[in-house]
Amino acid sequence: MRRLPLVLVVALGIAAGCEPADRRDAGAPAGAQGDPYAVLVEGLRSGQPPLEALAAETFVDADRQPPRADLVRLVQARDPRVRTVGLALVGTTRRRDLLPVIRQQRVGPAGVVPVARAFALAMLGDPSEVTALRDALASPDVTVRRTAVWLFGLMGNPSAVGMLKVKLDDLDAVVVLRAAEALHRLGSTAGLQRVRRLTEHNRHQIRAYAVRLLGRMGETADIPRLERLCLSRFLDVKFAAIGALAQQGDFKRIEMLTEFLEAEDQQARLLAARELGETAYKPALKPLERLLAARDLWERTTAAAAMVHILSVEDSWRSRILAEEKPPALDDAITPRP
Asked: Could you give the count of Cα atoms lying within 13 Å of 156 in the half-sphere of its Cβ?
């Protein structure tokens, strides 16, 4: 498979509630042409940690679950990021049938995996594990702080707002952005000013993350800032700004992203797909569906992730753009399996 630029891998993976009662199994990918959930399962089974993590993190907010065997494989993965996201997925989906699997695992005293394990156990009914999560917010290890902040956002508990507000003053920009994102999930805009400030960060990956969040959280007054960022020489920042303007109601920007799905440059196609997923604009499902037939698994998985974000009942916090109708041609393609 063609190796993707490091910039794009970071852009697709830098950003990382309660389980809805009707979450269903996404099924296996065999024979599931046009089914984004099945393509995500394909990503889970790819053996490529960045793809596995992207697919698993998409399922965190999806209205279906991957098959049980894939969940077990995720929480037992050797790659720490994949294992962390897998444990987060088990926790958010409240899979009590996997509690023995998690308890039997041995993890070290430090690192992100023990924090994710504590989260999963807490979500599955062990409140004593919340202490480990709370302690992780103050860890000297920046990757642990980043993970803990993300997980507190996934818990969906408004009582975490106070602790998350403290992390808006963290020395690490990613911790700050994850705290702002977690607060937004919980209905707070407390991190908006920090997000605005970080759209000027000297690292373009941080700028892109901040711009994407500004699309979710920002106000009309932020449009001039976003217009300027559309001129960035960095594609991740440029596409994040286009997507953020789309979320402010600029439908010409949505059309622009849709046109980029046909671009010759793969990086442009992938970033356009990601930002269309951020808009939650349902008419974008049809052009995204065409990418599910791409030869490249990164392309298929990214398109599938965008489609599932749009389709998910849990993603109302992600965007303000919600279309009135779903394209009728997709109705059969995404019918849940029995």
From this structure: 15
